[in-house]
Automatic annotation (TrEMBL), chain A:
Pfam families: MetW. This is Methionine biosynthesis protein MetW. It comes from the Bacteria. The lineage of its organism: Bacteria, Pseudomonadati, Pseudomonadota, Gammaproteobacteria, Oceanospirillales. It comes from Modicisalibacter tunisiensis.
TrEMBL record, chain B:
The keyword Amino-acid biosynthesis applies. Belongs to the AB hydrolase superfamily. MetX family. Keywords: Acyltransferase, Amino-acid biosynthesis, Cytoplasm, Methionine biosynthesis, Transferase. Transfers a succinyl group from succinyl-CoA to L-homoserine, forming succinyl-L-homoserine. This is Homoserine O-succinyltransferase.
Length: 203, 386
């Protein structure tokens, strides 16, 4: 399993009702269903991912995340997960609002643009970084909203959301996940666990 | 039939007949004293009787879903693209049951049969059937075949509505539901089109209030019109455009009302063929069954509440250019299923073929349908032969 998925696997409570946004081939939901009795749905638009989910027996709904989550009620589930997709959405900020409307908790992972290798790439070569976590050229990348570990923290703060957990990862060491020093510099992939703020909880 | 039978064909098939003497109470308040159902089966029922798949047909469909009745048949059954060895409904693994619904005109008890109480044809006196009535009759066929629980019940369009009815009314008898190009209820526009078709038939002077057989005639013009208007709703604007464009039959306009455009010729041909092959009373009755289907109506419009009894897994499939039962209608169903927390998957297939796409072969449609059925087979421990 992808390293960010392994970490998320630990964070998801037993028996939770989960919505996995951009669930890919359903690996995570499949593992969560088998290991933790999790139920729920994956949303995906990639045909191959959808077919893979069907063959696995993962509930998958063909739905474009840029259209929002209006078809889900408030508190429709316990937890919303979005791995490596926030940066590809037209309005990540609105999606964050939506995620914390349909569930009280969200887990989000995205490539950290401020990772030191990316900084070096841009700083010294003068080109947009291309790396394992950002494998595209500037003109064909689906990642239209690059952000950093710090950027995301600030967005959560501005929205009054509560960050309950965070971690960073380096793609080359699966076990090397921690809330380490200088995450904005050394984290290649950012993982956040976010909850509703006070206003939202009592409102 | 082709010279040599394709390896993925179920081959030659023979329809079978089942008679039921226990009266069937109907939604309209009447009771059908006894009835016959004609059906076909493909593949073999396993020892555990766990691998049965029921196929439900659409408006003008019937029991002949796959294979050929005789080597002289020009075309195979209506869903041959998806039923056969190695196909989405893999007959190497599944035992497929496909029947003609009550009120039909292909062998099951319907308007063209004798009403035992009057000794004459049922004709227009055949009771108006509902999707629920059909499913009740199908359950008895399952009992007769010794099938306690279907591995899957599948259907497109009106067939998909029967699948939904199975899931809601007989949850313990269906493990998986495949609902394709269907809708949880007709829109006003859908009902309007059906009413045009009905009026075309009923206003034909040869209709005789439904007693046309007694007058030794058939309301061919009405049926033809009904089919023409229906056919327009089965195709997309794009597929009609691609097939015919503004092509003319001859080189020039002739400023008259004979067939000029190819699309006119096509529609007339389709209408003519249908008008001699289908029964008018059956057509009227089938369109009514479509109009009446609305499971949410019994739950103050709450579809999720209507679906609450279901305990099967669902696959819902829609087609992008289907404007008869649009992808939005399928989404409505999927959203209700999710609200009811039922296991459901949904695929929106890109297709230029409109509503008819559910009948046609398509790579992605096949992968989705086949992928889901593969999982059904795997969960049952059914061996794959291909």
């Amino acid at each position: 399993m992808r390293p960010d998925l392994t970490l998320i696997h630990h964070w998801v409570p037993e028996g939770a009702q989960v919505l996995d946004l951009a669930c890919g081939d359903g690996t995570l939901l499949d593992a969560l269903a088998r290991d933790k009795g999790v139920t729920g749905y994956g949303l995906e638009i990639d045909p191959d991912g959808i077919t893979a989910c069907l063959e696995r027996g993962v509930n998958v709904i063909e739905q474009d995340l840029d259209q929002g989550l209006a078809n889900f009620d408030d508190d429709a589930c316990d937890l919303v997960i979005m791995t490596q997709a926030l940066q590809a959405l037209r309005r990540p900020d609105r999606m964050l609002d939506e995620m914390l409307r349909v569930a009280s908790e969200a887990i989000i992972t995205f490539p950290n643009f401020a990772y030191w290798r990316h900084r070096l790439y841009l700083g010294f070569k003068g080109f947009m970084p291309v790396s394992r976590s950002l494998p595209y050229a500037w003109y064909d990348t689906p990642n239209i909203h690059q952000s950093t570990f710090n950027d995301f923290e600030r967005l959560c703060t501005d929205k009054g959301l509560v960050i309950t957990d965070r971690a960073v990862g380096r793609g080359d060491h699966e076990s090397h996940w921690s809330s380490r020093l200088w995450p904005n510099l050394f984290g290649e992939i950012a993982i956040f666990r976010v909850g509703r703020g006070e206003a939202r909880r009592h409102g | 039939m082709p010279e040599t039978l394709p390896a993925d064909s179920v081959g030659l098939v023979t329809p079978q007949q089942a008679r039921f003497d226990e009266p069937l109470p109907l939604a309209c308040g009447k009771t059908l004293p006894a009835y016959e159902l004609v059906y076909e089966t493909y593949g073999e029922l396993n020892a555990e009787r766990s691998n049965a798949v029921l196929v439900c047909h659409a408006l003008s469909g019937h029991h002949h879903a796959a294979g050929y009745h005789s080597p002289d048949d020009r075309k195979p059954g209506w869903w041959d693209a998806h039923i056969g060895p190695g196909k989405a409904i893999d007959t190497d693994r599944f035992f497929v049951v496909s029947l003609n619904n009550l009120g039909g005109c292909h062998g099951s008890t319907g308007p063209c049969h004798i009403n035992p109480e009057t000794g004459r044809l049922w004709g227009p006196e055949f009771p108006v059937m509902t999707v629920g009535d059909w499913v009740d009759s199908q359950v008895r066929l399952a009992d007769r075949l010794g099938i306690a629980r279907f591995a899957a019940v599948v259907g497109g369009s009106l067939g998909g509505m029967q699948v939904l009815q199975w899931a809601m009314r007989y949850p313990e008898r269906i493990a998986n539901a495949v609902v394709i190009a269907a809708t949880p209820r007709l829109t006003a526009q859908n009902i309007a089109f059906n009413e045009v078709a009905r009026q075309a038939i009923r206003s034909d002077p040869d209709f005789h209030g439904g007693w046309y057989a007694a007058h030794d005639t058939v309301p061919k013009r009405g049926l033809k019109l009904a089919r023409m208007v229906g056919h327009i709703t089965y195709l997309s604007e794009h597929s009609m455009g691609a097939k015919f464009g503004r092509d003319l039959r001859s080189d020039e306009l002739n400023f008259g009302y004979d067939v000029e455009f190819q699309v006119e010729s096509y529609l007339r041909y389709q209408g003519d063929a249908f008008s001699t092959a289908f029964d008018a009373n059956t057509y009227l009755l089938m369109t009514k069954a479509l109009d009446y289907f609305d499971p949410a109506a019994d739950h103050q419009g709450d579809l999720a509440a209507a679906l609450a009894p279901a305990s099967c897994r669902f696959l819902v499939v829609s087609f992008s250019t289907d404007w008869r039962f649009t992808p939005e209608r399928s989404r409505e169903l999927v959203d209700a299923l999710m609200r009811a927390r039922k296991p459901v998957s949904y695929a929106a297939i890109d297709s230029p073929h409109g509503h008819d796409a559910f009948l046609l072969p398509d790579a992605r449609y096949g992968a989705v349908f086949g992928g889901f059925m593969h999982r059904v087979a795997r969960d049952l421990g059914l061996e794959e032969r291909h």
